[in-house]
Amino acid sequence: MDVLFEVLLRLPASLLCRLRLVCRSWRSLTADPVFATAHASRHRPLLAGYHIGSHGCEVRVVDLSGNVINRIPIKPDPIGYCNTQLNLVCVSEVATHRISRSSLVNVATGDVTTLIPDVVHDGDAANVVVSPLLLGHVPSTGERKVFYSCLCSATTHVDGRVVQTCGVATVGGGGISVGAWRATASPPAFVASGIQDRVVTGGLAFFLLNQWYNQRNNHGDLEPDAISVLDLATEEWRPAMLGGPLSSRLASDDEKLRYLKHRDDVRLASLNGCLVAVHHNYFGQDLWFLEDMNVDKGLWTKRYSIRCASSVSYPLLII
User: Fold this and answer.
1) Who contacts 218 (Cβ-Cβ below 8 Å, separation ≥6)?
2) Which InterPro entries match (predicted)?
3) What is the DSSP letter of 218?
4) Exposed / middle / buried, residue 296 (Cβ in 10 Å: 0-12, 13-18, 19+)
5) Cβ atoms of 180 and 167 closer than 8 Å
6) Which residues, at least 6 apart from 34, have a Cβ–Cβ distance to it below 8 Å?
7) Is the peptide bond before 76 cis (omega within 30 degrees of 0)?
8) pLDDT tens per residue across span 74-115
9) Whole-prediction pTM value?
């Protein structure tokens, strides 16, 4: 049992949850508080984010006590957007009018890959705005993919029509190589590219909408909390929008008035494999969970209400 204790102590928690089913003795061992304490001290949760200093930009890996475990320099210096999937960190610029470089960092090995989106747009495009890259994981296949969207306004259209093109590339197993970019279909409506307007969970990428472009292009009837869904496995957009937690649950005139005043204060996050819509209102922030990942049903439940005095409309960081 001492040897088994030392072996199981070295395995990640996700694997231990499966190994508990092997037999009663293994279940008893992994449920022992002594084992749980020893495992937690060995497998400390880590956070990764980018840091900009006098010597350039770097990804820092820190524990929950704030101790820096590793520093990985990035060149050139991207500023503005960072998202993670498993042991990979993708750092890129905010939406820009030029083709920007992004960096894909494997925090386990320290390898850094430079990514340049192969933007697809009309040859006469007068204005191109490329979004930061979004990194996602497909549990069914184990693949990791990066996604971009691009807003293009073409000079040949006198009505100033804008189109949104998209592309996806597959990341190599070790996170040090990226395959060719593949163009995908345009989303059903213009999607936003802000840090808190899109998130990936369960192999699906969820996007809030870009209200300004939708109103200019005859999509002004869409609810502000509606969500467009991209299946990363098939690289296809779901034809129907996912109804947001606010607009789909209006039950009284008071709720409708409150919704109309605060309907734009919704952001997206992921927590324990669930899609979370964070809604800021008069009193704080409400966390709505999508209960069934069968997004066609759109069943939302408000699990938490966080009351705070601040009037800032940005959601809390969920870790």
Assistant:
1) none
2) F-box-like_dom_sf, F-box_dom
3) T
4) exposed
5) no
6) none
7) yes
8) 875 556 688 888 778 888 876 666 566 788 888 777 788 888
9) 0.77
